[in-house]
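User: Hi! Is it possible to get a structure for several chains at once, not just one? Here's what I have:
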Amino acid sequence: MPPIIRTHDLRKTFRSPKRRPGVAGALRTLFSREYEDKVAVRDVTMELEPGELVGYIGPNGAGKSTTIKMLTGILVPTSGTIEVAGLVPSDRRNENARNIGVVFGQRSQLYWDLPLVESFELLRAIYSVPKDRYRANLQGFIEMLEMEPFLRTPVRQLSLGQRMRGDFAAAMLHNPRIVYLDEPTIGLDVVAKEAIREFVRHINQERGTTIILTTHDLADVERLCRRIILIDKGTIIYDGTVEHIKEQYGTHRTLVLTLTEPHPNPILEGAEIESNDRGLVRYRFDRRRARPDQLIREATQRYELRDVSIEEPDLESIIRRIYVEGYTQEPVNS
Amino acid sequence: MTLEPYLEFAKKAFAREATYRLEVFTEIGSLIVRVYLLRSVWTALYSQNIAPMNLPLHSMITYATVALLMSLILEVDGTRLIREKIREGTIATDLMKPISVPAYFFSDGFGQTGLHALLVIPSILFALLLVHIDVPSAPVFAAFLLSFAIGYLLNFFVNFVMNSIAFWTLETFAIQLIVRWVSDLLSGQIIPLTFFPGIFGRIVFALPFAAIYSTPLLIYVGVIQPHDYARYFLVQVLWLALFSALSLAMWRAAARRVVIQGG
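Assistant: Yes, the chains can be modeled jointly so their relative placement is included. Here is the combined structure:
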């Protein structure tokens, strides 16, 4: 099957008047014709197969939202090409709109003053969803997202978690082939996050919907995505599986010991002390150089232990390290 | 292009307006007070003989009352949504939908107007307790309605242009306030434009604002005679054509700005 989303050397440059500091600077800005160009997205090339669920990850200002906006067709690329389900989004905004669903964590597409269900009816009309399919979809969503209790409540009175569930349902009512989720779980509590992750997984698996998820919450990605694309300063720095990046960067483990008696410097051969807090000691070690069973044996010989555990690195700590150090094929071990 | 979404936008806007019940009732209340005040003012002024020849007191009171009833509909600014959406950044969400966004604004405004048009009925009944309104013959009334309809569309596009300025400045409140004051005065909503002397009279009749209030009102009270209807309609239609073209051009430029600069 051909890719459903394809971008080639996609680039977006924003032009803004050059700003100068201070009051005099502000006045000069008002009259000057000098501009500065900021490259938000630099030569992004990616391909997504139908039915993929990809995490699109990067720090603030990395170019995630700019990419998503270009994919939806509301932003025209400065150069490069995009094809979404065979269409160039910015040339065929309306047709493209029928293929896609969008959820922004920070903005709602629901109608503020109206009961939730009336926003759904409006969307049914906008996308000309056949009545029976609309009813089936809505019924399914109400059950999955437990929306029954607040279906008739005006949107402005909903809690953030309720509103987000409404927004998710709103984005999926017209059975879009592709869904863009931009920071969808921001500010949600654990229960709401879990409900939404479950919903995303369901939509992806049952309907085969292609999904791009941008998020800061790497737990979302770890739970949902097999593939991630990492972007930093507008450039893609990694495109591959979560497992691969974990294997590559996950050469370090953490050994956590709880000592019966606090010890000022409980050294272990082959591991370095990360922290030592009243007997709770965290060691970092390279699993290729030191073996955990030997470390534990050594620890039991030297100290009296109440508890022992070994932690694997999570995606979050790996990504944090990549942002700081940059991505290299063979990470240098520190 | 299917009409269904736009009918639905209008219905929802109607429902939304109806949720602000207090506003609806205060609107009728304030209208009644204004009818009473205008009757008093004009009666006092006419007793000082300041009236133009062709507008007797009963016509003047009819004019003022009908102008207030029209304002119930014309003062609904359906396009203020543009301004709000730009400020909140939600215009992007609308652009991601398979709809014509200007048509969406129009149907939303139309739905809001629908609710306020309903208020005209109780308002007339209350107004009739205070003042007597002349009722024109059926053909004249039909001409009035036609002229009013053109004025309504023109008013929409004038507002559209004003609110679209927000795409460049983000804030249009000051501009709108000034335009509102000027247009209230120059549209004939408060004072019939026939009161303006000499060259001023010529100027105010040549402005687009006259085509919103003045033309339908002067048709209603009979100052504009049937043999002049065609000429006045033509002027109204020309203004309408000009402002709808301007709206479209501004929308195109604004949309281009959004897609290039990201809003």
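Chain B has a mean pLDDT of 88. Residues 4-261 of chain B form one domain.

User: Great, thank you!
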